[in-house]
Design goal:
Blueprint: H1 3-23, H2 25-28, H3 35-43, E1 64-67, E2 70-72, H4 75-84, E3 92-96, H5 102-108, E4 113-118, H6 121-133, E5 139-143, E6 156-161, H7 170-174, E7 176-186, E8 193-200, E9 206-214
Parallel strand pairs: 3-4, 3-6, 4-5, 6-7
Antiparallel strand pairs: 1-2, 7-8, 8-9
The structure holds S-adenosyl-L-homocysteine (SAH).
C-alpha cells in the first residue's frame, strides 16, 4: 500500500470509529471518544499487528484472524474499551488477552505502564517481540492464565479484558484499585455477550453496568467451579 493510500485508510478507519461511537452513544455513554484516545488509535500501526497476507484489510473496522483461532479485535471496540477506562498518563493498566499486542500498544501510548497476560505461549512471545521492536518498553507481556490477573503488577487503575467470560473473575476485581475501572465482555462462548463496565468506588464498593452486545473469543481455562 502506498503512503498516500495508507493514510487514506487510516483516516477512513478513524471516521468509521467516530460514526460507530455516535450510533452506540446512548448505550455506552460515550458518543464522542476522547481526542487522546483517537490520537492513540491513529498512532498505532494496525498493519504491523496482522499477517502480511491481510495487509489490505488491516485498516478495516473489523476483527481479523491472528492464528491459534484467535482474533485482533475490531478497532471501534478497542477504541471504546480504551475510552471507557479513562486512561491517564500515570495509570498502571492490566490487560487480559494480549493476542496480537494491538490493544496493549494503544494503551501503552496513553498510560504509564501496561501489564498484559496471554494464555497462548506462541502469541505471548510474538506480541512481546513486536512491542519491544516498536520501542514500547512500558508494556510487559506475561504467559499465564488471566483468570488470576497479574497480582505482582497490581493493584491497577484499570483493567481491560479482551476475551469473554461467563462470570467476572474475582481475582480481577480484587486487583482493581479503589476508584478503578474494568471493561470486560461477559457471557457464554456462543451466546449473548455484553460489554460490562465494572467500577470500584473509593470505599471499594463495586458496581457493574452492561453497555452493549459484543462477540469476543472465550476466556479459556479458569477454575472449574467458575465455568458456565
Ligand atoms: N487484545 C488482543 C485481542 C485478543 S483476542 C489484540 O489486541 O490483538 C483474545 C485473546 O485472549 C487471545 O489471544 C486468547 O489466547 C487470549 N486468552 C483466552 N483465554 C485467556 C486466559 N484465560 N488468559 C489469558 N489470555 C487468554
Amino acid at each position: 500500500m502506498s503512503t498516500h493510500h495508507r493514510q487514506q485508510a487510516i483516516d477512513a478507519l478513524l471516521d468509521h470509529i467516530r460514526a460507530e461511537a455516535l450510533s452506540c452513544g446512548a448505550c455506552t455513554g460515550r458518543p464522542m471518544l476522547s481526542d487522546r484516545v483517537m490520537r492513540a488509535m491513529a498512532a498505532v500501526p494496525r498493519d504491523a499487528f496482522v499477517d502480511p497476507d491481510l495487509q489490505d484489510e488491516a485498516w478495516l473496522d473489523a476483527p481479523l484472524p491472528i492464528g491459534h483461532q484467535q482474533t485482533i479485535s475490531q478497532p471501534f471496540i478497542v477504541a471504546l474499551m480504551t475510552d471507557l477506562i479513562d486512561p491517564k498518563p500515570d495509570d498502571v493498566v492490566l490487560e487480559i488477552g494480549t493476542g496480537s499486542g494491538y490493544q496493549a500498544a494503544v494503551l501503552a501510548g496513553l498510560v504509564k505502564q501496561v501489564q498484559s497476560v496471554e494464555v497462548i505461549g506462541a502469541l505471548a512471545r510474538m506480541a512481546a517481540q513486536r512491542l519491544q521492536g516498536m520501542g514500547l518498553h512500558n508494556v510487559h507481556v506475561h504467559h499465564s492464565d488471566g483468570h488470576s490477573g497479574w497480582p505482582a503488577g497490581g493493584p491497577y487503575d484499570a483493567i481491560v479484558v479482551t476475551a469473554a467470560s461467563p462470570v467476572i473473575p474475582p481475582a480481577l476485581v480484587e486487583q482493581l484499585k479503589p476508584g478503578g475501572r474494568m471493561v470486560i465482555p461477559v457471557g457464554p462462548q456462543h451466546g449473548r455477550q455484553e460489554l460490562v463496565l465494572v467500577s470500584k468506588d473509593a470505599q471499594g464498593q463495586v458496581t457493574e453496568s452492561g453497555l452493549l452486545p459484543v462477540a469476543f473469543v472465550p476466556l479459556t481455562g479458569g477454575a472449574p467451579a467458575l465455568r458456565a
